[in-house]
Write a structure and sequence with these properties.
- The chain is α+β, with helices and mostly antiparallel strands.
- The chain has five domains: 63 residues, no CATH class; 161 residues, 3-Layer(aba) Sandwich (Rossmann fold); 80 residues, Translation factors (Elongation Factor Tu (Ef-tu), domain 3); 92 residues, Translation initiation factor IF- 2, domain 3 (Rossmann fold), CATH 3.40.50.10050; 97 residues, Beta Barrel (Elongation Factor Tu (Ef-tu), domain 3), CATH 2.40.30.10.
- The chain is built from eleven helices and 34 strands.
- It is globular.
- Keywords: GTP-binding, Initiation factor, Nucleotide-binding, Protein biosynthesis.
Length: 536
């Protein structure tokens, strides 16, 4: 294991997982990163480009993306895919994505969506001139971006819906197109709601294939599908029946008190008795349904249903004959944080995934602790759990029964009900300051310790980075481990009180409510700034 030359990761990797992959103790990895100017903690993420540079520089290990592992085309289970097409329908909110799919499939799914806004992923299939076409209907809100990107990664063609009646934002649309093109996926711009303008029609200047359509009347829909088939026929796509197989969870929700999970298998085969391996758990499949019939074996691509299994709030999985062995690090939260516990119940898997994606991507989180997130209606066990562990109950897309609501009120449990995921995210951002990030503005190194009266100690420090302001928050690190968060009580240089000390200046510092620092400890001064990612 010490001669590791290559590793394969996703777009980002946890520090504890990277330690396992390169076979280095976690403490050594964190120290090596620190010596190369990168400060991280056990549960922090590093992105692919950073991992690639660091591993090559420090350990001479090459890093590759998992998705770029190529399969040899001469494998006897790899056949050219000529009659099956994967199409993703995406675009901004209210531009007509679901309406287009409804017209193609002759259904009416839009009226069942909360606020007529897509909050979940759906997959459908239909036949058109001997081609089997899978359509993926994706949410338009930016909160679902990770879900969208995962689904795009398996698509052949994107129908990117633009509303003709809106003011066309060329820059925004072209930026989105560039992102799609990096995935090597063909794009058709579908200019929807064209029927509303009988006079004064405008020409839209895009270099990509574009078709003017009306999802409401069906104008040019047949042309759209024909064009997608012509584009697909020029591609070289393959049906891959090799193991391990791969798939995605499309969605989970309760229907008539039965938890139904829709999965899309896009690689390999699936048989009863196989395991679906997720990031930290394996689930054995004893029964699944295709077209509402129990089936024992299927080949990809295929849509299957599984009943009454609570899957993890993840999307991608691998299929294998054996249970996967996991290396799981220990999650922790700093004792200096004052967290509020949340117990969240959602109506669908996609809602849960998007909430957890928001939560895991927070750069600053000193308030929110999601202790549990699951799919389905609230019950007595959920309430007892929240009572025992002092949790606030959050529901999204779920109605709490009057009997349970009375029990919640009697036990004085706090609760919130939301219809939409973005309403919950706005609540977190506004009330728990999740739209802010820390910005380090200065660092001090403790060089000496001086007594000050019976109880206090003065830290003799030197500014080694930026400047330190008396008003700013501070963190103290001992051997790279956070040991305190708080405020500075006073800064002095030669008995003169200072508010700011700058690079290379030496000073004496007293810390409010903390004395347990030593020579060599680092004091980091920081401020809070708004994170543009969460300002909409």
């Amino acid at each position: 294991m010490d001669n590791i030359k290559n590793i394969y990761i996703d777009n980002k990797v946890l520090i504890k997982d990277l330690s396992f992959l390169i076979n280095k103790p976690i403490e050594k990895l964190i120290k090596d990163l620190f010596l190369n100017g990168i400060f991280v903690k056990l549960n922090d993420y590093l992105f692919f480009e950073n991992v690639k540079k660091i591993c090559k520089k420090i350990y001479n290990i090459d890093v590759f993306k998992k998705e770029n592992i190529k399969i040899l085309e001469n494998n006897n289970k790899l056949n050219k895919r000529t009659d099956v097409i994967f199409i993703t329908v995406t675009g901004n909110v209210n531009n007509g994505k679901s309406s287009l799919i409804d017209f193609i499939l002759k259904k009416n799914n839009v009226k069942f969506e909360v606020g007529e806004i897509t909050q979940n992923i759906s997959v459908f299939n239909f036949f058109f001139f001997e081609k089997k076409i899978y359509l993926f209907d994706l949410p338009g809100h930016s909160l679902f971006s990770k879900l969208i990107n995962i689904n795009l990664s398996i698509s052949d063609i994107i129908f990117y819906i633009i509303s003709y009646e809106d003011n066309i934002d060329y820059k925004k649309i072209n930026d989105t197109i560039i992102k799609f093109e990096k995935l090597s996926i063909s794009i058709i711009l579908c200019i929807n709601k064209y029927d509303k303008f009988k006079f004064g029609k405008k020409y839209l200047n895009f270099k990509n294939e574009k078709i003017y359509i009306s999802a409401k009347t069906g104008f040019n829909i047949k042309k759209l599908i024909n064009t997608s088939i012509l584009i697909f026929n020029k591609k070289n796509k393959y049906i891959d029946l090799n193991n391990p197989g791969k798939g995605i969870i499309v969605n989970s929700c309760f229907k008539n008190d039965v938890l139904i999970t829709t999965l899309f298998i896009f690689k390999g085969t699936l048989e009863t008795g196989n395991f679906l391996n997720f990031k930290h758990i394996s689930i054995k499949i004893l029964e699944f349904f295709v077209n509402e019939k129990i089936t024992s074996k299927i080949e990809s691509p295929n849509i299957i249903l599984i009943k009454n299994i609570q899957f993890p709030i993840e999307v991608l999985f691998e299929i294998s004959n054996t249970r996967k062995n996991y290396f799981i690090g220990i999650d922790y939260k700093d004792k200096y944080y004052n967290f509020t516990n949340f117990y969240i119940k959602v109506s669908t898997h996609n809602m849960g995934f998007s909430i957890m994606n928001f939560y895991n991507d927070l750069k600053l989180n000193e308030s929110i602790n999601i202790v549990k997130l699951s799919i389905g209606v609230l019950n007595d066990n959920d309430i007892n759990y929240c009572l025992n562990f002092n949790c606030i109950i959050i529901t999204v897309g779920i109605l709490i029964s009057s009997v349970l609501k009375q029990k919640i009120l009697i036990n004085k449990i706090k609760f919130k009900e939301f219809d939409l995921v973005n309403d919950l995210i706005d609540y977190f951002k506004n009330f728990y300051k999740c739209n802010k990030i820390e910005k380090t503005i200065g660092k001090l190194k403790i060089q000496e310790i001086f007594p000050s009266g019976k109880l206090n100690k003065i830290a003799g420090c030197k500014v080694i980075f930026g400047e330190v302001n008396l008003k700013n928050n501070i963190k103290i690190y001992k051997n790279l481990k956070l040991i305190f968060k708080g405020k500075i009580k006073s800064i002095k240089i030669k008995n003169q009180t200072k508010e700011i000390v700058i690079l290379n200046e030496e000073c004496g510092i007293l810390i409010k409510n903390f004395n347990n620092y030593e020579v060599g400890d680092i004091i980091e001064s920081y401020i809070y700034e708004y994170d543009k990612k969460y300002i909409e």
